[in-house]
Every structure is written in C-alpha cells, then in structure tokens.
C-alpha cells in the first residue's frame, strides 16, 4: 500500500490539491516557476481589489446589506468589518489635510473654547498653565500634532459607543452586542467616507460662492453642513436598520433619526477623550 501524502501544515492526509482540514495547497515542482509566481501575485491583488471595491460598493449603494450578509454567514466575498473600517479610516485621515479641515483632529483652541466638555478641559489645562499665563506656541503646535496622530487610532472609540445606541434602539431584535458592533463598524465606515465627501463638496461650494462675492459666516456654514449631514445619515441609518433588523417604516425612520442625532454626542465624547489622552501623554 502507498503511504498517503500528508498536509505539510497540519499533517492530515491529502486527497486533492488542497487540504480539507486547513486549506493548505499541496506543494509541487511548478510552484517555483517564475510564471506561476507571477500568476499568484496577480491573483492576490485582483482578489483583494475585488473584495475591497465590492465591499465599499455594497456599503454605499445598499445600506445595511453588507452587515446582513456578514451576520448571515456570507463573508468570503467581502472585507471583514474591522478591515473595512480601517481602510475607510486610513483614507479619511490621508485626505483630510488636503481639504484644510480639522474634523476629528480638533486643535487645542477648539478643545478649550468651543466644545461641551470645554469647562472640564480648561480646569485640567489650567493646572499646567494657570489662567492668565500665556501658552507657549511650541506647546500648542506639539499638542495639535500629537493629537492629530492619536486621532487616527482613537477614532474607533466611537464604534462601541454607537453600538450601545444601536442596542437601545433595536433591543427587541435580541441580538448579541457584538452583532451591533458589526453594524456600527459598517456604519462608521460609511460615515467617514461621507464626511470626507461632504467636506470636499463644501470646499467647492464655498469657492463658487466666493467667486460670486458671497462669503457666508462660519455659523451659516456649520448649520448648513450639519443639517445636510443629519438628513443623509438619517436616511442611511433608516435603510441600514430596516435591512438588518427589520421593522416598520415609521419606527425605522424614528430610530434612524435617533442614530444620526447620537453621532453629535458621540463625537463630543470622542473629542473629550482625545483631549485628555493627548494632554496626559504629551
């Protein structure tokens, strides 16, 4: 009797080209041909690109469908939720400096003057720089640079907070908290991309208005951007929520509005967290 060929990785008997236990490919002499290596490289890149573009296309065109597919166990064709979020996060922070906005990075003067947590931030900050003491320009620059660096990783703290709001809205669906986290990861991947597109579009509109001699105030700009953002995010949350959790249209719309509105509070919590982490690690 012939000795059965075993998988080089797990040691299970091989009955075909790939191991049925771990998926390892059976080695062969053709593996080291240059043409075979080139084929594998091309296949790896096209397969990864297919997953990437397919996942983002589904995320942007069918709200909630990507989450529903993942929860149903159909996961091979798409990027994993955390990977999708990290790609969106990377694109956001790479492009943000080009747009000239400080959304989610939050410089020191914004922390100390314009946020809900400003009184607490000022009380802590004045332990190091008492009221009336000039803050060295070098410190402010270093704080902003350090905060911008931390923001790239700390932005994920919004995900579990948002998942709690999702759980509160859809608790009757009797889902595990981690399932709400999956929904939140996909939601924030969309939100980051929308925010990036919104800021770019706002820049274009402001240039057109300036060319026509109209210069709206910062308050008008903030209100307009916030109102449009609330509408877009509400619609996305409405469709995504009904796709994943079901429910009637009126209830879905109300829950979508709650989810969209909660983003403003969650961003405040994130910015406060960013301030204190930056302050104590600088």
Polypeptide structure, described:
The protein is mostly helical. It has two domains: 1-30, no CATH class; 80-281, no CATH class. It has ten helices and no strands. It has helices at residues 34-61, 65-71, 81-99, 108-113, 118-125, 137-154, 158-169, 177-211, 218-245, 249-281. The radius of gyration is 24 Å and the shape is globular. The model has no long low-confidence stretch (mean pLDDT 88).
List the helices and strands and how they pair.
Blueprint: H1 34-61, H2 65-71, H3 81-99, H4 108-113, H5 118-125, H6 137-154, H7 158-169, H8 177-211, H9 218-245, H10 249-281
Helix pairs in contact: 2-8, 3-8, 6-10, 7-8, 7-10, 8-9, 9-10
Mean pLDDT: 88
* Binned strand content: under 5%
In N-to-C order, the SSE pattern is HHHHHHHHHH
**What helical percentage do the residues reach?**
55-70%
Give the key terms.
10 helices; 0% strand; 2 domains; 282 residues
Summary, kept brief:
With 282 residues, the protein is mainly α. It has helices at 34-61, 65-71, 81-99, 108-113, 118-125, 137-154, 158-169, 177-211, 218-245, 249-281.
